[in-house]
Design a protein that fits this description.
mainly alpha, 0% strand, rod-shaped
């Protein structure tokens, strides 16, 4: 039924595309279908039926003894009416079929609209699922990258061993640093004492030098005075 409806709908769309009828044309076509005034050849069926009916009524109204003619015209009229009725029945069957087909098309249209709405809802759900899948995939990729980085690192036991060795080295360096600081402090004190001793020694040497210079001056003056005294005595002895 769905396939049939789609095919008919396709033909209808094609007819709409190629044949554009106005309201007046629709009225004329409807009138011709109802009156059966359109025929491919000969007189229209309704006119023929009208002529048969007119001939039959005129024959009945005559006063002459024309029973056979009336019977003949009556049969001809009934036959023409049957002939005219058959297309009407066919048209009615076509109309009923078209109405049923219209109902089918309406149901099909409603089904299609429901399917469209459902498809739109499904598309929205799929979009949300796609976004969630993208986020989940990104998280998985990040976790995989972290896992690879972790896998590249050495085992925990080896890391703990390295940390222990580094802690021992740090402790040794701290002890060495403490010893070096103590040694440096001792050397500072020794150097300060040495500077103090050198300063004292320098002061002592300067004092000794001053004392020595004073003594040399004193000796020089005494020697000078002694020489002057000796010269005076010699002169006195020479005078005598």
């Amino acid at each position: 039924m769905l396939v049939k409806g789609r095919k008919v709908a396709g033909r209808g769309e094609a007819m709409t595309a190629h044949y554009a009828f106005g309201p007046e044309d629709d009225t004329i076509i409807k009138h011709r279908l109802l009156t059966r005034t359109t025929t491919t050849r000969g007189e229209p069926p309704l006119k023929k039926l009208q002529k048969k009916f007119t001939s039959f009524t005129l024959e009945i109204e005559k006063d002459a003894d024309n029973y056979n003619d009336c019977e003949r015209l009556s049969k001809a009229f009934l036959q023409e009416m049957t002939t005219f009725e058959i297309p009407l029945l066919k048209s009615k069957a076509v109309i009923d079929a078209n109405l049923r087909e219209k109902e089918n098309f309406t149901e099909l249209k409603d089904d299609i609209n429901r399917m469209i709405l459902q498809a739109q809802a499904d598309i929205e759900d799929l979009k949300k699922q796609l976004e969630e899948s993208k986020i989940e995939r990104q998280h998985k990729e990040e976790c995989e990258a972290i896992r690879r980085l972790i896998a590249m690192q050495p085992p925990r036991s080896e890391t703990e061993k390295i940390i222990s060795e580094l802690e021992n080295e740090i402790a040794a360096l701290e002890a060495e640093n403490t010893a070096g600081s103590r040694t440096l402090e001792l050397r500072k004190k020794q150097f300060a004492l040495l500077l103090h001793v050198v300063d004292e020694l320098q002061n002592t040497i300067e004092e000794d030098q001053k004392n020595l210079i004073e003594e040399m001056r004193s000796l020089t003056e005494e020697h000078k005075n002694g020489m002057e005294d000796g010269v005076g005595v010699s002169e006195a002895m020479a005078v005598d």
